[in-house]
């Protein structure tokens, strides 16, 4: 999933971008887990992960956060 393609446009057009904090919805945690488990079981929700083994790879792995090699996208 990608974020906004042009974050500067948000500023220029005085638009607002609002995120959520999971902690705001803790009372509904059980409901969310149940629903997401169903989505995973049906193949409607898929998890992507990059597993890197070994502490010696930490510097290179950490730098992936800034080089675009991770799956999340930010402004």
Unreliable spans: none
Number of distinct beta strands: 0
Task: Assign a percent range to the helix content.
Answer: 40-55%
Q: Specify the number of helices.
A: 3
Radius of gyration over all CA atoms, rounded = 17 Å
Structural class given helices, strands, pairing?
mainly alpha
Strand content is: under 5%
Task: Write a structural description.
The structure is a single chain. The protein is an all-alpha fold and 75 residues long. The chain has a domain at 21-67. Helix content is 40%, strand content 0%. The protein is built from three helices and no strands. It has helices at residues 7-12, 29-42, 58-67.
What is this structure's SSE topology?
Blueprint (H helix, E strand, L loop, with lengths): L6 H6 L16 H14 L15 H10 L8
Q: Which tags fit this structure?
A:
mainly alpha; 75 residues; 3 helices
Summarize the structure.
This protein has 75 residues and is mainly α. It has a domain at 21-67. The chain is built from 3 helices and no strands.
């Amino acid at each position: 999933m990608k974020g906004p393609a042009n974050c500067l446009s948000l500023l220029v057009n005085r638009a607002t971008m609002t995120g959520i904090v999971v902690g705001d919805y803790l009372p509904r945690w059980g409901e969310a887990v149940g629903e997401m488990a169903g989505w995973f079981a049906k193949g409607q929700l898929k998890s992507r992960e990059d597993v890197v083994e070994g502490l010696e790879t930490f510097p290179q792995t950490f730098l992936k956060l800034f080089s675009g090699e991770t799956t999340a996208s930010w402004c």
